[in-house]
DNA sequence: TGTACATCAGTGAACGCGCGTTCACTGATGTAC
DNA sequence: TGTACATCAGTGAACGCGCGTTCACTGATGTAC
């Protein structure tokens, strides 16, 4: 059993440690192994080494645990995207490219989170916290798109939200179809990163970028 | 219990009718109701009104039934796309637009098929028949992309397969995120068809289309 | 046309199993005084 | 510093349930002659 180093909480020796977080890890491990449908509440308890009744102290049911995994996934996702975007440095176009690569990297290296976030069948409207976390992740992309369209002359600028939705959809499509880190991946004659980069370049050229405003290097 | 009219086989009064097909319908109904993970082999038997042992005459297990649903889904999908593409008529750009709309229409009107095809966790490499059916659906898009790039001057034509992958990814991304006919849909400030149409227009403009070859109208 | 037989779809009873959930409980931690 | 008490995380036994799967069977359909 591995204890994460990144969360900052560590094991607090309390009865049997930080069970809530351990259950989330259990869910991730089991999703990675058998898919988002392939684990049960009892499985998670067994993985964590506690009795089958113990998880009820922390989650109402299996769905609540799964929603918590998705929530944590969106939070990590947003953090990862924020880091990649790096506030538009060294320049907006390069940072935008990094953003897309980070999205793909997340889908590849964290397929369990990715499944819980997008494929576990949790209705997005159900849990407000979950929705907000998803919105925060999208906001990173949205802000980046804002900076991107600002490179264009003021007249004829496309709406930043549309650009963000386009890039999100394209990236999500590539990640879902070809960029998974698990068995659901389809084969592709090139790395997904290249496919995405080419698509975004063509798309931005279609918007007239880089162009009249001059390339920012 | 509804009997489909489109398949051309109808109920053949044989013991209890065409159970194999009825089980596929059962799976679709149950997926639509409770998601791809939300049905069991016994559920399907109950829905079809037969004993729990009966499905074993037709499918090895639940996964085999699910794979058959996905297979049938890909076949319908390919047929629908072929109809929409209509061999590039009335003109290639219009037909290409219709193709994208048909993809979204399928995801909206057949969310159960869509789930089984793309989200049920069936590894694409597992079943050769399933893979081939998926490939046939993609081939429609691929042929359309071929016709599309043929509108461009021979030098500097992008590879048709890349264009097809880009459009597939974009469409799949929009369909998965916003275009579902079930609870998994996220909200969007515009119809998904419009979002897709705008994206494809911008993308094609980035490719230089319609352009040097002259718009085909 | 009729009879005997082979085929095979569906039955229904049975089984072991693991899941979800509850319950009174235990025992460690935290806190009031 | 010490004692009594409240809190609460985790126990373990128990339960009913439905699932997956098997089995010998039944009875309708198809076919050989």
Describe the structure.
2 copies of one chain form a homodimer. By secondary structure, chain A is an all-alpha fold. Chain A has 2 domains: 2-57, Arc Repressor Mutant, subunit A; 63-213, Tetracycline Repressor, domain 2 (Orthogonal Bundle), CATH 1.10.357.10. Chain A has 8 helices and no strands. The radius of gyration of chain A is 20 Å and the shape is elongated. The relative contact order of chain A is 0.11. Mean pLDDT of chain A is 89; it is low at 1-14 and 213-217. At the A-B interface, helix 7 and helix 8 of A face helix 7 and helix 8 of B. The structure holds a DNA duplex (33 and 33 nucleotides).
Work out the strand percent of chain A.
Answer: under 5%
Q: Separation of termini of chain A?
A: 48 Å
Q: What is the CATH topology classification name of the largest domain in chain A? A: Tetracycline Repressor, domain 2
**Which structural category fits the helices and strands of chain A?**
mainly alpha
Q: How do the helices and strands line up, and which of them pair or pack?
A:
2 copies of one chain form a homodimer.
Chain A: H1 19-34, H2 41-48, H3 62-85, H4 92-109, H5 111-118, H6 128-149, H7 160-178, H8 192-207
The structure holds a DNA duplex (33 and 33 nucleotides).
List descriptors.
Arc Repressor Mutant, subunit A; 8 helices; 2 domains; homodimer; elongated; DNA-binding; Tetracycline Repressor, domain 2; 217 residues; disordered C terminus; disordered N terminus; mainly alpha
């Amino acid at each position: 059993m591995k204890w994460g180093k990144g969360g900052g909480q560590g094991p607090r020796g309390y009865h049997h440690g930080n069970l809530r977080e351990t259950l989330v890890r259990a869910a991730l491990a089991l999703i990675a192994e058998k898919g988002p449908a392939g684990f049960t509440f009892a499985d998670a308890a067994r993985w964590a080494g506690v009795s089958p009744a113990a998880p009820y102290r922390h989650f109402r049911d299996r769905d609540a645990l799964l929603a918590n995994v998705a929530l944590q996934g969106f939070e990590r996702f947003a953090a990862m995207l924020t880091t990649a975007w790096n506030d538009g440095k060294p320049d907006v176009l390069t940072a935008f490219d990094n953003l897309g690569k980070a999205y793909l990297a997340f889908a590849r290296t964290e397929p369990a989170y990715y499944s819980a976030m997008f494929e576990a069948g949790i209705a997005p409207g159900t849990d407000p916290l979950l929705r907000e976390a998803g919105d925060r992740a999208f906001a990173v992309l949205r802000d980046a798109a804002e900076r991107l369209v600002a490179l264009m002359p003021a007249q004829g600028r496309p709406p930043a939200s549309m650009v963000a939705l386009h890039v999100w959809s394209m990236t999500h499509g590539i990640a879902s179809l070809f960029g998974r880190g698990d068995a659901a991946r389809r084969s592709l004659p090139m790395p997904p990163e290249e496919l995405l980069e080419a698509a975004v370049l063509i798309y931005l050229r279609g918007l007239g970028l880089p162009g009249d405003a001059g390339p920012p290097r």
